[in-house]
Amino acid sequence: MILLKSAKFKEVFQKLIKFEVRQEITKYLKKGNVPASAVTASSIKGFHWANYLYETRKNMPLIHAVLEATLTNRRNTDKVGIDSDGKVGEFVPALGFIIATILNLRKPRKFHFLQTLNALQMYRSGCNQKLFTWCHKIGICLKARTTRNTVDRLRKDFDTEIMGWKKNIQNELLSTVEDTVDALSGDEYGTPLQDMFESESETYMSETDSSDTSCDDWQISESYLGEPFRDLGVTPLTKTGECLQIYRKLRDIPRRNVNCDVP
């Protein structure tokens, strides 16, 4: 108690605290990685104050002790504590952000995770560019331009899973159509599509004297129809012109193991 009343001792003690604090912060700036995590959708969802403060309290105990003492008294130390269930005290976010601001001001390129979270919330709230500039200067958030780049990066892959589903469905449908074309073009169902239409056309032209009659006005014969054609919507009432359109669409699809030549 006598030493605490000494002005000389207080001066020396303050210098000692400054030296130790600088040692702690310098080491952590080099080796620490919390909250220096890459900002991704998963890291945002997985963020918790308990993990963050455990890391900083372990590596910067003196800084933590000083800050905790400034925020609480002897009766309410639980306000900066975290219980076993992960429930945080009232001042835990403030304590965490104070430390995050210090780290960001010292090394902004590495420690900007919490500033990014703030910037994203400000962006969602429609804050203007001036507010981003003012808050960035005191270590609260990112610049407006950096925030926009972060938003673009985060939303770039937001529909990756859905697009994957879409691609799988497309592949399945294409595979089904290819298998149908392969079957129609082989010997399993008799005359290939091209020969069928050529034969039908020759038969029709030999039986009619009118060269002005359109092929859309006559219908495909029942004998040429089989299971594959009915699956494609071809019936005895389907006009040949419509069948030719179906044939041309199928002909343009890349086919596998086709045993006949279709131009």
Percent range of helical residues? 55-70%
Structural class: mainly alpha
| Mean pLDDT across every amino acid position | 75
Any idea what the radius of gyration is? 37 Å
Report the sheet-strand fraction. Answer: under 5%
| Overall number of domains | 2
Count of helices? 12
Order of helices and strands: HHHHHHHHHHHH
Low-confidence stretches: 208-226, 255-263
Largest sheet: none
Number of DSSP E strands: 0
End-to-end Cα distance, whole Å, is 102 Å
Tell me, what's the shape? Answer: elongated
Please, could you describe this protein's structure?
The chain has 12 helices and no strands. With 263 residues, it is mainly α. The chain folds into 2 domains: 3-156, no CATH class; 160-251.
Topology at a glance:
Blueprint: H1 7-31, H2 41-45, H3 49-59, H4 61-71, H5 92-106, H6 113-124, H7 129-137, H8 144-156, H9 160-185, H10 193-207, H11 227-231, H12 240-251
Task: Considering the chains and any ligands shown, give keywords for the structure.
263 residues, 2 domains, 0% strand
What's this entry about, in short?
The chain is an all-alpha fold and 263 residues long.
